[in-house]
Amino acid sequence: MASGIKDKVAIIGMGCSTFGERWNVGAEELMTEAFSEALSDAGITKEDLGAAWLGSALDDVNIGNSALPLAFGLRLPRIPVSRVENMCATGTEALRAATYAVASGAVDIAVAVGVEKLKDTGYGGLPLRTKGTFNDLWMPYGSAPGGFAQLAGAYRARYGVSKDDLKRAMAHVSWKSHQNGARNEKAHLRKAVDIDTILNAPMISDPLGLFDCCGVSDGAACAIVTTPEIAATLGKNNPVVVKSIQISASNGWESSADGWDGSYVVNTREAAKRAYAEAGVKNPEQEISLAEVHDCFSVTELVTMEDLGLSKDGCAITDILDGKFDADGKIPVQIDGGLKCFGHPVGATGLRMVYEMYLQLQGRAGDRQRDNVRLGLTHNLGGSPSNSVSAVGLFGLLD
Amino acid sequence: MNGITVAGTYLPQARIARSEIAKAHAWAISALKGKSKGQRSAAAWDEDAITMAVESSRGLLNSGVQIDQCVFASTSHPFVDRSSATIAAAALGLPNDVITTDAATSRRAATSALIQALRCNGNTLLLSGEKRIARPGSWAEIVWGDAGAAVLVSDAAPQATCIGWQSRNEDSPDFYTATGFHPYQGEERWIKEQLVSGIAAPTIRAAIDKAGLKAADITWAVLPDPSPACEKTLAKELGLSATLLTQEIVANAGDLGSAHPIFGLALALERAKVGDTILIASFGNGCDALVFKVESLATKSSSTDAQLQGGSAGSYMPFINSRGLFDIDCGPRAERIDKTSFSVHARYQRDITSFTGGKITGGGAVQFPKSPVALDQAATTPAQYIDVCLASERASVVSYTADYLTYTPQPPFCFGLVQFGNGARVAMEYVDVPSEGLDVGDELEMRFRIKHIDRERGYRHYFWKAAPINTTTGEQN
Prior knowledge:
The complex is a heterodimer. Chain A is an alpha/beta fold. In chain A, 36% of the residues lie in helices and 18% in strands. Chain A has helices at residues 27-42, 68-74, 90-104, 144-159, 163-181, 195-199, 228-233, 253-256, 266-279, 284-287, 298-307, 316-321, 338-342, 346-361, and strands at residues 10-16, 51-55, 81-84, 109-117, 203-205, 208-209, 218-226, 240-249, 290-292, 375-384, 387-397. Chain A has a nine-stranded mixed beta sheet, with helices on both faces. In chain A, a hairpin with a 2-residue loop joins strand 10 (375-384) and strand 11 (387-397). In chain A, helix 5 (163-181) packs across helix 11 (298-307). In chain B, a hairpin with a 4-residue loop joins strand 20 (413-420) and strand 21 (425-429). At the A-B interface, helix 4, strand 5 and helix 8 of A face helix 12, strand 19, strand 20 and strand 21 of B.
């Protein structure tokens, strides 16, 4: 039986670039921006690093293959560098690799950097990608909002919810995140939006309107991890520690066999179950202080509340409309503005979520700061609900 | 001699009112107003001669007749060098040793192939389909229609036997389409008075004579109508008192090119009584005429009738855009790379084109595509699958969206998860979706369609899509 990584790895420094339409900088500059902040925060030099992982998902308009752009960009001292890609869980995957390296004792200090330069596509969306030479022969093309919009009808069918009721709850999800993002100087979209504007926005993929979709932006984030013991030698006696990082990936059951009704995400439930077990969380609804979830689309956040056990099944609409996940609610979700306001530079997103938890746990989140933050959850969901990779991370303080 | 064992038809869902076409061009071509009665059938962007012909023939294979050859007749084959008949045979799951032949370059292609099929030994699946591209504002654009039609020719329980036929070749074009050019038509009155009267009439008369009948004995007639009022004039000249079907087809769907006489034959069989006689004729570089006697009514159906009366209103702008006649700017999302890998296609084409999944020996869930390790297989050794065709399996909606972001020539792009009755589940594109969309649980059936077109290289890849059953237009009789 694996003993897990709970409390074995401390985060001693983090950095996050400003997200947005960063027309004047490239991926290398974004990485440098996040890395410099993290290095300064950790109080180390790059010669102290034992290994590095780069999370970058989309080759098309990005930095190309391998992790060399990281080694070149940051002029790393010939340490092992690897590039990882796991769709929208890429940033978290980079952190998982660095965390596991430290937990194993293979290296003392490791760095995870996530970056994506999406705004060089030449239009306002994700790059067009093949699904592979075989899958292209039969699998339907469909946009990311198209993939996640599938949740809506299936959720309505399962719980007998009207289109209007679901749409109102989805609108509240986006309204809440825009409220939060307006207070975050690193967010891309920093404007509060009223409910009517959200409800009446142009349709993107039924029933997702424009404001049900996260932004598309450039950004980078970085985490430096080490053991709690080494952290202590650096003067960090009660550091933020990793309680768990778990990933679950589809094996084809949801999309190939009769059983799943399409109203929830199997892998989020599976990753959450494992993460809670590893971290010793018995009642997530009571124990989790804050959550940064993968709100690529409003309906995704809605079903994720149930998948993570933050709402009971069938109760997410009520909980959302009651303000449970608002900034002043019981469990604030996307207190930093989320993907909705940061956009989703894919490789950076998971680490950007951890960045907010890192700040909140240390009381450094400025006017977004919540009281008594004990346990923060991050969640990523890549692919589509029927073919997904889901990551759940839990972060707290050592003591 | 072989006979017609069963016939089938397919009309695409959309109908363009001819008045709309005439109105669009009224500023320049006022003469179109005189041709603005009725409507024409309009294939969707992902339909072509092959897909429509396949749809028309899907019910023909239930008779249990072993097919020896598959012949595909069209003047609008999508490829000059890639066999339509072979693609259709693969879609229909016919064995590899079936002879596949393409007939082309004449509106008589289907009837000439039919004569040969009737005369030969062995069983022939004869498919015909047309999606002819005509210049905007032309007579052809407004009068023609898109369709598929098919007959199974064999000696097994024929619904109709051929009791007389005549074919005549004559290189006096009333009308032609050169490679790379739009269709071009001769003078209407000359066609009617000289060609139809001089070539078609005597050919048809000879076929009736060979059948041992008089013109007045014909019950149903599907006559060529290459220029206005030809059908009526020809019938009068021949002394026919039969029910004429061409104008009815033209009014509701259009002149269907090489598929027209086969479509008309299916319609006549649907309405006929035992003992009736049916005359079909085609015209173009000559004339073919065949006379059939109805022997039995194996399965009474009103599918063709229903299709003629059915459909839903389409719009002219999407119609000309989807035919490549109006090149609108679809934005950078339309720059998607759609190149097909030939070697990948070769590895999987039988399963892909015929929509065949599998289940592992000893039972288990059906899955598509077949993966090296089956979904319900504990072992990690390569699975041995029993083929299961999903093309005719009823299914239902698990999830759905209408996606306005993904590029498609006729937005929105509708897709979702589809659950099959046999347990298989496949992510699929939806077609012929009503404006109100689909709901979870809605019943579906499969349609053979173009999946994507590689516009840079002129290649098109075929696969299956799911259509709501309520909008079905392609049942076979």
